[in-house]
Design goal:
The complex is a heterodimer of chains A (139) and B (399). Chain A is an alpha+beta fold and 139 residues long. Chain A folds into 2 domains: 73 residues, Alpha-Beta Plaits (2-Layer Sandwich), CATH 3.30.70; 59 residues, Alpha-Beta Plaits (2-Layer Sandwich). Chain A has 3 helices and 8 strands; from the N terminus they run E-H-E-E-H-E-E-E-E-H-E. In chain A, the strands form 3 sheets. Chain A has a 4-stranded antiparallel sheet, with helices on one face. In chain A, strands 5-8 form a two-stranded antiparallel ribbon. A two-stranded antiparallel ribbon of chain A has the order 6-7. In chain A, a hairpin with a 6-residue loop joins strand 2 and strand 3. The radius of gyration of chain A is 17 Å and the shape is elongated. By secondary structure, chain B is of the alpha+beta class. In chain B, 16% of the residues lie in helices and 31% in strands. Chain B has 6 helices and 26 strands. Classes of the chains: A alpha+beta (139), B alpha+beta (399). Chains A and B meet through loops of A and strand 3, strand 19, strand 25 and helix 6 of B.
C-alpha cells in the first residue's frame, strides 16, 4: 500500500471559478483529504485558499493537475514574498499587478502601499513588476 | 501687495519665513482667501519623485600614470560616453551593459544599468572602471582597469537634460495582450491605467507659466541642493492648457544639475521597468516664492483641477498618433479607480506621491530653519509667448 503524504499549497481562484465545487471534486474524484487552514472567497471577488492536501502521491499529482487544467494557480506555501522597505517608494505600480489585493493602498490620504502577507499567494508577479526591486521571494 | 525675493530671503535668514507645502496651502487658501494668504505666506514648496530617464552624471576620474585619453569607458560594465576631454565621462541613466539580453528574452528584466551605477556611486560603493583608447604621444595608455569611488573623483555631478515634466500621459492598453512600457505593465483590455505625476505637489504645475522658476533657480535635487540650468529637452510651453492655465498634457520641462557627493540614495534610485529598460528615479523639490496674489492662486491648484490625457500605449502611442481617449483628473487617478469609456479601470502611479510629499516637507523645513535661500532666476524659461512647440521627427528616407 502506498504511503500517504501531505502538501501545503495556496490556491488562487480567478473570479469565474469561485462558484465551482473544486474542493469537493478534489475529495471525491482524487481520494484526497483536505485541511483548510485559510480561506478567503467572496462571490464578487477572487479567492485564495491555503490547504493541506493528504493522499497518495499519484492522487495528489492528479489533483494538482486538475487544478491547473481548470485554471487555478497554486504555489507551495513554503515560498514567502517579502518587501524591502528601504527600496519601496510607495509608487503603487504593483497594486494593479497583484491578483489578490495583498499589495494595495488602504488609506488614500497617505497613499502608502500596504503589503498584507496574509493575502499573498506568493505568485511572484510583483517581483519583476516593481521598478525598485523591492519585492523578493524566499523559500 | 507684491513681495520681492530679497524680502522673502531676509525673512528666511531670520527664520521667520512662513512656508507651506503645495498640499498644505490648499485648505489654507480656501480658509483665508487669495489676498490674505498672499500677504501671509512667503514660500510654497513642491515635490516630485519618479523615474526620469533623461538623467545622467559627469564624472572626472583624474589622470592615470601614464596618462590616457579615455575613448570608451565602462562603469560596472555599463558603457559611459567618453567623447570628451581625457578623463571625463558621462554616464546616462538608461544605458544598459553591452551583454544585456535586453528584450531578446521578452519581456527583458533589465537588472542593471546607468541608473544603478549612479545610485551606487552616491551610496559610496566602489565601481569598476574599464577603459580603452588608441593612444597618443601625450596620452600613451591604451587600456586600464581599476575601481573608483565617488570620494576620490574630482567631480561627480548630475546634469539631467529633462526632468520634472509638467504633467504627463495616462497609459492604458486596448489590445488583447499584456504590454510592457515605461509607464509599467499594462494589462490587456484596459486592465489598468498608469499615470506619473505628483499632481498638486508637482513643481511646474504650481508655476504653470514659469513666472518664478527659471534658469538659476535653486532647488532640492536628490536630497541636496541643485539648480535649474536650462529649459529641459522637449520643453513645450504652448501645450494645451485648461481654463486655469494649467497644461492638460506634457508641457514644460527643466534641465537640472547638482553635486552627487552630497546626494542621498533615498532620493536618487536606479529603477528597472520590465520589458522596457533601466532608468533613474529622481527626487526634485522647487520652492515657489509667493510674490503676489497670482502666485498664491497658482500654488493652490488641486488634484481635481489638473487633467491628464489617457492614451492607448498598445497602438496609438507607439504609432505617434496620440489619440486622446479621455481626460482624467488626478483626484480620480489617485482614488484607485477611474472611469474610462464607461468602464471602471484600476489606476496606479509610477511616480511616488508619499515621496513627493516628503520632499516638499523636507524643503519646507530647510527654508523654515534658514538653511535654504531662494534665488532670483537669471533668465526665464521660454514661455507661451515664445511660440515654442514640441516638434516631431519626420523620416525622410524610404525605410
Amino acid at each position: 500500500m502506498q504511503r500517504t503524504i501531505a502538501r501545503n499549497i495556496m490556491l488562487h481562484y480567478p473570479k469565474k471559478l469561485t462558484e465551482k465545487p473544486i474542493i469537493s471534486n478534489l475529495i471525491k474524484n482524487y481520494d484526497l483529504t483536505m485541511n483548510i487552514s485559510r480561506a478567503r472567497i467572496d462571490q464578487d471577488e477572487e479567492g485564495t485558499l491555503v490547504i493541506e492536501i493528504s493522499g497518495v502521491k499519484e492522487n495528489i499529482d492528479a489533483g494538482l493537475k486538475y487544478l491547473t487544467d481548470i485554471g487555478i494557480t497554486y504555489k507551495p506555501v513554503s515560498k514567502v514574498i517579502a518587501r524591502d522597505d528601504e527600496r519601496c517608494t510607495h509608487c503603487s505600480a504593483c497594486t494593479v499587478i497583484c491578483p489578490t489585493g495583498a499589495l494595495l493602498i488602504e488609506d488614500r490620504s497617505t497613499m502608502f502601499v500596504n503589503f498584507i502577507q496574509d493575502k499573498c499567494i506568493a505568485c511572484g508577479l510583483c517581483i519583476p513588476a516593481c521598478p525598485y526591486q523591492a519585492m523578493e521571494m524566499y523559500e | 501687495m507684491a513681495k520681492t525675493i530679497q524680502e522673502i530671503n531676509e525673512r528666511i535668514k531670520n527664520e521667520k519665513a512662513v512656508v507651506f507645502t503645495a498640499e498644505e496651502i490648499i485648505p489654507y487658501v480656501e480658509e483665508k482667501g487669495y489676498k490674505k494668504a498672499a500677504r501671509e505666506v512667503d514660500v510654497v514648496t513642491t515635490g516630485t519623485f519618479s523615474p526620469m530617464c533623461s538623467s545622467g552624471a559627469f564624472l572626472n576620474f583624474g589622470h592615470s600614470a601614464p596618462r590616457m585619453k579615455i575613448q570608451n569607458a565602462w562603469l560596472n560594465d555599463v558603457p559611459a560616453y567618453g567623447g570628451l576631454a581625457a578623463c571625463d565621462v558621462y554616464i546616462g541613466a538608461t544605458q544598459i551593459p553591452d551583454e544585456d539580453p535586453a528584450n531578446k528574452i521578452y519581456p527583458g528584466r533589465f537588472k542593471y544599468g546607468g541608473g544603478y551605477v549612479i545610485e551606487e556611486l552616491i551610496d559610496g560603493k566602489d565601481i569598476t572602471l574599464k577603459a580603452t583608447s588608441y593612444g597618443t604621444d601625450c596620452y600613451p595608455r591604451k587600456e586600464l582597469q581599476t575601481t573608483i569611488n565617488i570620494k576620490d573623483l574630482n567631480q561627480a555631478y548630475l546634469v539631467n537634460p529633462r526632468n520634472a515634466y509638467q504633467n504627463y500621459n495616462v497609459a492604458v492598453n486596448l489590445s488583447s495582450r499584456v504590454i510592457y512600457t515605461y509607464l509599467g505593465v499594462l494589462q490587456p483590455g484596459m486592465g489598468n491605467a498608469n499615470f506619473s505625476s505628483a499632481g498638486q505637489l508637482s513643481p511646474l504645475l504650481n508655476d504653470p507659466y514659469y513666472r518664478t522658476i527659471g534658469i538659476g533657480t535653486r532647488i532640492f535635487l536628490g536630497g541636496s541642493v541643485g539648480y535649474v540650468i536650462w529649459e529641459g529637452t522637449q520643453h513645450n510651453p504652448t501645450a494645451r492648457r485648461g481654463k486655469t492655465g494649467v497644461p492638460t498634457e506634457g508641457a514644460g520641462t527643466i534641465s537640472v544639475a547638482g553635486d552627487m557627493k552630497n546626494m542621498s540614495t533615498r532620493y536618487v534610485k536606479g529603477v528597472s521597468m520590465l520589458g522596457y529598460g533601466v532608468s533613474l528615479s529622481m527626487g526634485i523639490g522647487i520652492p515657489i516664492p509667493i510674490i503676489d496674489e497670482e502666485m498664491i492662486s497658482f500654488v493652490s491648484i488641486k488634484d481635481e483641477d489638473i487633467y491628464a490625457p489617457v492614451i492607448d500605449y498598445s497602438s496609438s502611442y507607439p504609432k505617434r498618433e496620440n489619440d486622446i481617449l479621455t481626460e482624467l483628473n488626478y483626484r480620480d487617478l489617485r482614488s484607485g479607480v477611474a472611469t474610462i469609456r464607461e468602464e471602471k479601470v484600476p489606476t496606479a502611479s509610477i511616480s511616488s506621491y508619499p515621496m513627493a510629499r516628503e520632499i516638499a516637507q523636507t524643503l519646507k523645513n530647510w527654508i523654515a530653519t534658514g538653511k535654504f535661500q531662494l534665488t532670483e532666476k537669471v533668465a526665464p524659461l521660454p514661455g507661451v509667448e515664445s511660440g515654442q512647440t514640441f516638434k516631431s521627427l519626420e523620416i525622410k528616407t524610404k525605410r
